[in-house]
Structures are given as structure tokens and as C-alpha cells.
């Protein structure tokens, strides 16, 4: 794809139109709404602040735009959705994650539609798509992050249903969600088995607590504490034992679809840096006239182009039905590491202005540093890549001794 900091889509009129309208909304109406309410990046968001954005975004055709037409969307490909997610990231609007439905909306609920019963669709998922309800996803526990089999939240049989007990952490969108897609270990059996449940967060025995505040300062995480919380058979998502398949089955696509948002934020860092370098005067000339600064800008733009190209290449393969698990590992690793390098150089070029708490560059630096850990650290991505390489080598050379990671 040709290099540009402001992508155009001349070969796809639908996405060009959506992109133009999305930019107009993000930088116009949504920016004005945030200003009116005094919302900053570290503001504690409330349901009352978010619901108008859900409704308005749905009116404009953005909320759930990726869904099939029968659910009110336009059936976007992954590549088309990524183009919109990149614009969301590049806008750096506080409420931008509510526009397409990332934060508790259709983008979070969409992957589980295929597992839902008619009852679950009607009570839980369709209201999310309409912007009437919100959901969170609860898999991680204090000592069970990358090692998901260390989960200790347990579902013990009780008649036709189960009693849940455990403590989930880092449930994004938990502070304003109505229910959680929650993965639990099945009790009462010697076999290791995990299931997924739709848990109402106002149910008896379920408590939503403030989660830890990440270094970005955003208040969007919750702990979900379960103490003998009953869930009925109608709340089982999929079949007993399908929990990890449902929970982890969405991870590859989600890992890949996080990349365009991060690329958008890296793009924003480059744009801010270009503006600063061309307007900041040093010894009577723009900072951008210094060759050392030009080299940094060149490196930032090259890293962005490389990361963006490989991400969209993997997304195109996914659209064509390819298995892209290894490519998703690679993209997440490369995008995370290079987006952070771009942010680091942006701070360096801004100097004192880039170190000031509350400046946009300073916040982007913190946010992009987090992505090297979120959705699997860079080391976890390397493990996945190496495992595939070693496995393929062992298959190609059955007589050779190799030790998969």
C-alpha cells in the first residue's frame, strides 16, 4: 500500500465514505461533546456520559457497522473494519472507543453471536447491538494471565445450573457493563474443563469493584468478585467445556484488530511531532531543519509504514479465510514495539513539552507503552512465533530432534 499519514481508499467508495464521515464526527460533534462535559483522558467515565455516544453512533451507522445487515451493520471485512479502527486511534478522542463499540459494545459482543441461543440473543446480545446494554469479558485472574489454565474461578453444579465463586481482574468496560462473558473452571469433575457464562453483574453473589488504574490513567477496568453466584442453564454460552475455545477463539482476531487502533495512535504521535518540529524555532530556524531531527522523523515514518503494511497484509489473508495465528503474533509484536519507539522519539523531539503531564504526546507515550504488555506481552508473541517455526521444522524433518518452546 502506498505511504501516507492520512489514508485514502479510492478503490473502496464505501470505506472512503465511512472514513470521511467518521473523521467528521470524531473531530467535530464528539470533540464538542467531550469539551462540553470537560472529559479528559483520565476522567472517570459514567454510563450517563457513554449512552448518548452509543445512541448517536448507532444513528450515524458506526455502532456495530461491522456486523451483518440482519443485525443492523454493513457486513464489513476485517480490512475495512481496521481502516475505521485506525481513524478511531488517530483521533485520540477519549470517547472514541464507544463509537464503533469497542468499549462494552458490539465489537466486544460480536464474536460470541454464533454461540448464543435465541434467548441469549434477545436478552443479552441484541440490546448491546442496539446500544441499550453493555458487556465486559472476564477471563484474566490475578495469577492467571497468559497461563489461562491457572484459572481458579469455579462453577460448581447446583441442580440444572451452577454456583460461581472466584475473582476476575482487568474486565475492560466493567465499570459500566450490565453483564459479563465470564470463563470459569468446571468443578465437580476430575477432568480439566472450562465453560463460558453470561453473568448478570447485578445478580446476588456478584460484586463489581474498582479495578486497578493502569499507567494510562484510564478508569475502564473492574474486578468481578463472585461468591456463590447462581447462573442458570440458560446462561451457559455454548456447551459445557467450550469455555477456552470461546474465550481464546476470539483472541487471534482481537489481537490483530487491536493493531490498527495502535497504529492510529502512532500516526497521531507522528502528526503532532511533525507539527511541533516545523513550528518550534531553534536558533532562528525551525527544529525540522536539523538533520538529526529529520532522521528521527524518517525512522518514525518508516516504522509506521512497515507495521501498517504487515498488519493489513495479515488482515487481507484473514478476509480470504486463511489461518493467521502466527501472523497475528508477528503483527502484535512488531506493531507494539515500533509504536512505542515512535512514541519515544516523539517525546525526545518534543523535549520538555513531551514530558509535561497532561500533554497529548505524554499520554500517547504512556498508552503505547502499555500495548507492549496488553493482549499478551511481546515475549508471549515471540513464544508463539517460535513455537510455530519449531513445529514446522519438526514436521518437515521428522528425524531431526527439536524442542518446541
Automatic annotation (TrEMBL):
<protein>
    <submittedName>
        <fullName>Acyl-CoA dehydrogenase</fullName>
    </submittedName>
</protein>
<comment type="similarity">
    <text>Belongs to the acyl-CoA dehydrogenase family.</text>
</comment>
<dbReference type="InterPro" id="IPR009100">
    <property type="entry name" value="AcylCoA_DH/oxidase_NM_dom_sf"/>
</dbReference>
<dbReference type="Pfam" id="PF02770">
    <property type="entry name" value="Acyl-CoA_dh_M"/>
</dbReference>
<keyword id="KW-0285">Flavoprotein</keyword>
<dbReference type="InterPro" id="IPR036250">
    <property type="entry name" value="AcylCo_DH-like_C"/>
</dbReference>
<feature type="domain" description="Acyl-CoA dehydrogenase/oxidase N-terminal">
    <location>
        <begin position="16"/>
        <end position="132"/>
    </location>
</feature>
<dbReference type="Pfam" id="PF00441">
    <property type="entry name" value="Acyl-CoA_dh_1"/>
</dbReference>
<keyword id="KW-0274">FAD</keyword>
<dbReference type="InterPro" id="IPR013786">
    <property type="entry name" value="AcylCoA_DH/ox_N"/>
</dbReference>
<keyword id="KW-0560">Oxidoreductase</keyword>
<dbReference type="InterPro" id="IPR037069">
    <property type="entry name" value="AcylCoA_DH/ox_N_sf"/>
</dbReference>
<dbReference type="Pfam" id="PF02771">
    <property type="entry name" value="Acyl-CoA_dh_N"/>
</dbReference>
<feature type="domain" description="Acyl-CoA dehydrogenase/oxidase C-terminal">
    <location>
        <begin position="241"/>
        <end position="389"/>
    </location>
</feature>
<dbReference type="InterPro" id="IPR006091">
    <property type="entry name" value="Acyl-CoA_Oxase/DH_mid-dom"/>
</dbReference>
<dbReference type="InterPro" id="IPR009075">
    <property type="entry name" value="AcylCo_DH/oxidase_C"/>
</dbReference>
<dbReference type="InterPro" id="IPR046373">
    <property type="entry name" value="Acyl-CoA_Oxase/DH_mid-dom_sf"/>
</dbReference>
<feature type="domain" description="Acyl-CoA oxidase/dehydrogenase middle">
    <location>
        <begin position="136"/>
        <end position="229"/>
    </location>
</feature>
